[in-house]
C-alpha cells in the first residue's frame, strides 16, 4: 500500500501545528521534515527547535526527518531527542555513511539514505540491508516547486528489484515534483512512500488530495 509523507515546507508556517494536524487527520501517514543548512544545499529551512515544538503538539505523529546538511552524523542525537522517528541523510554528505547509519540505529531511530539526481542507484546497494528507508530525490534538493525529473523512475525500478531479490522491504521513498500525475508513475516504478508538498498543503480538499496520491 502506498503511504504519503507530506512535506511541511509547503505548509503555512503561521499555522504549522494546525495544518500538520489537519493533514494527518486527512489520512497522511507521517510528516516529512526537511532540514537544510545553507551549505549542503543553497537554502536554509528549520531545525531542532521546530521539531521539538511539533513533537510536543503532535506526540503521536511519525516524523520523517530528511537531513539535507553537510555533517549529519553530528546532529543525529539532537534530532532523535527532538522527536525524529526516522532520520534520512544524504550519501553525498561529508559524514561516513556506515557510521551515520549505525549512530541513528544506536539512538533508537529508523535510518534512511538519500541520493541526489546525479547519484546512481547502485551507490546505495552496499548499505541496502542496513536501511529502513531509501529516498530517491526527483529534483535537486534545496527548494520546493521544482519539476519532476523522470530519471528517478529508473532508479526506483533498480532499487525495488534489488530489494526484492534480497528479500528486503524498506520504504522506497521519492521526493520532488510528486503530484497526481507523477505519483502513480513512481508507485508503478516501485515506490511505496511519496513525499508531496504543494500537492497536499493548501488544497481546499486536503483529504481528497491525500486519497488521490495514495491511490484510494
UniProtKB/TrEMBL annotation:
Substrate binds at residues 7, 66, 142-145, 175-177, 197-198. The active site is at residues 34, 175. Pfam families: Ribul_P_3_epim (PF00834). It catalyses: D-ribulose 5-phosphate = D-xylulose 5-phosphate. A divalent metal cation binds at residues 32, 34, 66, 175. GO terms for biological process: pentose catabolic process; pentose-phosphate shunt. The keyword Metal-binding applies. One of its GO terms (molecular function) is metal ion binding. Keywords: Carbohydrate metabolism, Cobalt, Isomerase, Manganese, Metal-binding, Zinc. It is an enzyme of class 5 (isomerase). The keyword Iron does not apply. Its EC number is 5.1.3.1. CDD domains: RPE (cd00429). Its cofactor is Co(2+); a divalent metal cation; Fe(2+); Zn(2+). Pathway: Carbohydrate degradation. SUPFAM superfamilies: Ribulose-phoshate binding barrel. Binds 1 divalent metal cation per subunit. InterPro entries: Aldolase_TIM, Ribul_P_3_epim, Ribul_P_3_epim-like, RibuloseP-bd_barrel. GO terms for cellular component: cytoplasm. Catalyzes the reversible epimerization of D-ribulose 5-phosphate to D-xylulose 5-phosphate. Belongs to the ribulose-phosphate 3-epimerase family. PANTHER family: RIBULOSE-5-PHOSPHATE-3-EPIMERASE. NCBIfam families: PRK05581.1-4, rpe. This is Ribulose-phosphate 3-epimerase. It comes from Allofournierella massiliensis.
